[in-house]
Amino acid sequence: MSEILGMKFMKQALMRKVLYALAPIILASVYFFGWRSILLIAVSVLFGVLAEWAFKRRSKKPVTEAVFVTAVLYSLTLPPATPFWVAAVGIIFGVVFGKEAFGGFGRNVFNPALVGRAFVYVSFPKFLTTEWNVPASGFPGGFGTYLTPQVDALSTATPLITYRSSGLMAEYLDIAFGRVSGSLGETSAILIILAGIYLIYTKTASKETMGGVLLGYLAMSTIFFATGVSQVPNPLFGLFSGGLLFGTVFMATDPISSPKSNEAKWIYGILIGVVTVVIRGFALFAGGIMFAILIGNTFAPILDELVKYFKSQKTAKAQNGGEKIG
């Protein structure tokens, strides 16, 4: 116990900026769904830190502050009523197999928060796909309750699930402000956009990656929608629904699991946006952005290598051309 209480943390200013950007979204999750949101986040943080500490203690290295970001991001992708034990299992899996198995911070191939989310999504689908809660409204909202009531019909489930089952679309103001059922941090489009602006302004997250995801998504969804593919909603509705913005701002921009060159970031982002539309329209998963980012993570290293290769080829041609002229 004394070892745990005396654990040291590696200071990472960049990670703290991400937490600052997440603070309003965390408060919004409490307003919409109740104080259980804070407990769910706290459980994820606790077990995420302990999982990383279990690996660091042998080498006597400090726990990274990045694990706090991983745990908070992971918990914000969970429905409000997710059992605490499911949240704990997921974050432990994400930290161990999405991060420490590759050698720890800076070496992971996949976004560890999404590794954990994908694991609980396929392992405990009942809690992640069918149990949603009604968003609170008015004053004091969720600040006056532990947990808001569960939805009583499919018509009041998340906007994308409702669209898939009935073709009905939520009101744009509701999905913009967050007055819809969904995961803790994915409902309020306005707060996520403001967070994205802050992260770009402070040079904490890549604007190229964000721009690529939005470009790829809007282009592909417009093509499908314009050609009459009924499974794909109009691009604007899809943009504000299903965690697309949250994934774009906070997950796709993870500096470790995404490409390093600006050109590769654009390609990477476009790939994620395109794959998101395809998964949403034709797979069993209503969201799509989670698996799209993990697929993008797979291609990130080779995209950097391809950009480097083409740049070297261009440089070589320019040099050869100069030699011939001389």
Structural description of this entry:
This protein is mainly α. The protein has a single domain (7-310), classed as Ammonium transporter fold (Orthogonal Bundle), CATH 1.10.3430. It is 65% helix and 1% strand. The protein has 15 helices and 2 strands. The protein has helices spanning 2-5, 13-33, 36-59, 66-76, 84-98, 112-123, 125-129, 159-166, 172-177, 189-201, 207-226, 235-240, 244-251, 262-282, 289-325, and strands at residues 9-10, 63-64. A two-stranded parallel sheet has the order 1-2. Helix 4 (66-76) runs parallel beside helix 6. The radius of gyration is 21 Å and the shape is globular. The termini are far apart. Pfam families: NQR2_RnfD_RnfE. The chain crosses the membrane at residues 14-32, 38-55, 67-97, 176-201, 213-230, 236-254, 266-295. Keywords: Flavoprotein, FMN, Membrane, Phosphoprotein, Translocase, Transmembrane, Transmembrane helix, Transport, Ubiquinone.
Task: Using brief descriptors, characterize the structure shown.
single chain; 326 residues; mainly alpha; Ammonium transporter fold; 1% strand; globular; FMN; membrane; phosphoprotein
Per DSSP, what share of the residues sits in E-state strands of 2 or more residues? Answer: under 5%
Cα gyration radius (Å): 21 Å
CA-to-CA gap between the ends?
73 Å
For the record, the CATH class is: Mainly Alpha
Q: What is the subunit arrangement here?
A: single chain
Task: Please give the share of residues in helix.
Answer: 55-70%
Structural class: mainly alpha
The total number of structural domains is 1
Strand order of the largest sheet: 1-2
Overall pLDDT metric: 88
Q: State the low-pLDDT regions, or none.
A: none
CATH topology: Ammonium transporter fold
CATH architecture: Orthogonal Bundle
Biggest beta sheet attributes: 2 strands, parallel
Number of strands: 2
N-to-C series of helices and strands: HEHHEHHHHHHHHHHHH
Based on Cα principal axes, name the global outline.
globular
Number of helices: 15
Protein name: Na+-transporting NADH:ubiquinone oxidoreductase subunit B
Keywords: Flavoprotein, FMN, Membrane, Phosphoprotein, Translocase, Transmembrane, Transmembrane helix, Transport, Ubiquinone
Organism: Acidaminobacter hydrogenoformans DSM 2784
GO cellular component, one term: plasma membrane
